[in-house]
Write a structure and sequence with these properties.
Blueprint lengths: L2 H14 L5 E3 L1 H8 L7 E5 L4 H12 L4 E4 L5 E4 L4 E4 L6 H10 L5 H7 L9 E2 L6 E2 L5 H7 L1 E2 L5 H7 L2 H13 L2 E2 L1 H9 L9 H14 L1 H10 L10 H9 L1 H4 L5
Parallel strand pairs: 2-5, 8-9
Antiparallel strand pairs: 1-2, 1-6, 3-4, 4-5, 6-7
Helix pairs in contact: 8-10, 8-11, 10-11
Length: 252
Amino acid sequence: MNLNDLLIYIDEHARSRGIRVFIVGGAVRDAFLVPDNAPKDIDLTTGDKSIYTLAYDLSKKFPGADFRIFDDRHTALQFDNFNIDFSSNFISDGVKAYFRRKGIKASPLRDEMFSRDFTINTMMMNLKRDTVYDVTERGQTDITNKILRCPVSPEISLLDDPRRMLRAVKYSMKLGFIINDEEREVITKNARMISDIPVPYVNKIVSEMLDLDIKKTIEELYELRLLKHVPLTRKLANILTKNRELAKYFRG
């Protein structure tokens, strides 16, 4: 079964159970950036716990796919050529408080989208992939303008999960986007928080950044005051041995 056929099946199965399911995250973002590219990873959400019912049903329907349950409670089905992830329905307490202060009545699905890292990852798409819902009303604009901006205050979005500070740098390297000034300020003031992130994660994402652009990665991590909290791995050490100009960023 190809991806399009699978998505149509999921849509029909979900509707038969009274469930509305949407594609979210990177696949929607990339539909604007690289329209002709076939996605390899699809993230799905329903906005509530019905996502678990859907994931379980599909794991039984497709026993040949590798079904996994992760520590953050999201689940996934790995097929031969693509991966389907089912949302953990994470909703930030900070986002809920933000909406209360603003007097905005939100739904669980809206709460979930605004709890994501950046506006470019908050858009939703139907499973036919012909309709996009720009929940924050800024996602498409920020993609066009190549801006990385949080859906709510970056003090909520970034501090909810400090790994997002590193992901901001990775997105800027990978997509050529500029990190918004307010987000840069919050990262700079709270850079020490990445010291609390598991070291294997930090090493992995920094390695991915270096593979994209060594010089820009080191300069950006330095400018955001993140570099001093990044472990000196063998890969980094080899780079610095060969490039004394970059080594200056590690002094002091």
